């Protein structure tokens, strides 16, 4: 017995080592899968029609054809990119100085935007203003906006950033209405102010996420809205709320969880203006009642909030009607200025089925280009060597690089036109 016991005991540590090894292997496998480490890096997929403009852009915007390389350890995970953007916005964000402007709206609301002057001469030596619409419940004080504005200023752009109605914590509402998914009133008021105050300026229109929907809808609403507009850039929008709502209730890619977090944030913002929105106010929508306030408390999705509160600011009779009318889907084909639509293939908020919208548009219209990198998450697009991201993102650089290229394109066209007129006059 003693002999057999002595022979058996050395085998026990080997068994334990095997279990440890299997556990370590399992953990490593999960890490590799969760961090998507096996995913390759590649240049973004580009969908466009072959045209003189497209060829000029491919030559003038190296980022369109260059590999986008996210941080090595975590950058290939759309979830981590999205979470890092959501929690931090950006790293080591600058603090650009701007002036806050207040605009009285016809319904008694007060729109606000921040105006930032350029810090250097523009590459074409002319006056160009970026009019910027942030994402849902965002404003000019968000870190990703501050980082982008600072970079645009240093490249010679004046920047005007809309503060979504009700989003700034220290600005009270002056009417019983907040920003909504597709309301363009405040953005339009800001653009009109810029056009009137700076009659020589040309505009570059930029929208992030929900802001992308607003700016595209604004441009498509009227041909006059495209006057003096050089181009438009939309980043990480979903194009159709009606088609997105079903996917946003699915657990695939944790969209239902993101939906819950965004709804919780929206609830806090709405409840911070509870007195103006739900108090005794003769101006408030007749359909907004105490019952809606009760439903707001129990809402766990953006759709529930939109149905019980947001659609009623504009008198929509149903959620379907609200989403149908407020989405830019039906306005995109009316945009004639150069249009850059940027999404990330691993964006957990925007289902891949929604990307058929910009793809189809880009295949038909010469003014449209759809840019789809493999990685970037939702408004992440961080760059960096191994672990720590850089302050500037691939997205920041791409938007400015594209705007610079369009400015050069327009200047070249204008120069050619002037030359032709001079030759014609001599004849």
Automatic annotation (TrEMBL):
Its main location: membrane. It catalyses: Hydrolyzes glycerol monoesters of long-chain fatty acids; a butanoate ester + H2O = an aliphatic alcohol + butanoate + H(+); an acetyl ester + H2O = an aliphatic alcohol + acetate + H(+); 2-(5Z,8Z,11Z,14Z-eicosatetraenoyl)-glycerol + H2O = glycerol + (5Z,8Z,11Z,14Z)-eicosatetraenoate + H(+). Keywords: Cell membrane, Glycoprotein, Hydrolase, Lipid degradation, Lipid metabolism, Membrane, Serine esterase, Signal-anchor, Transmembrane, Transmembrane helix. It comes from the Eukaryota. It is found in: Cell membrane. GO terms for molecular function: acetylesterase activity; monoacylglycerol lipase activity. Its EC number is 3.1.1.23, 3.1.1.6, 3.1.1.79. Residues 129-384 form the AB hydrolase-1 domain. This is Monoacylglycerol lipase ABHD2. It comes from Steatornis caripensis (Oilbird).
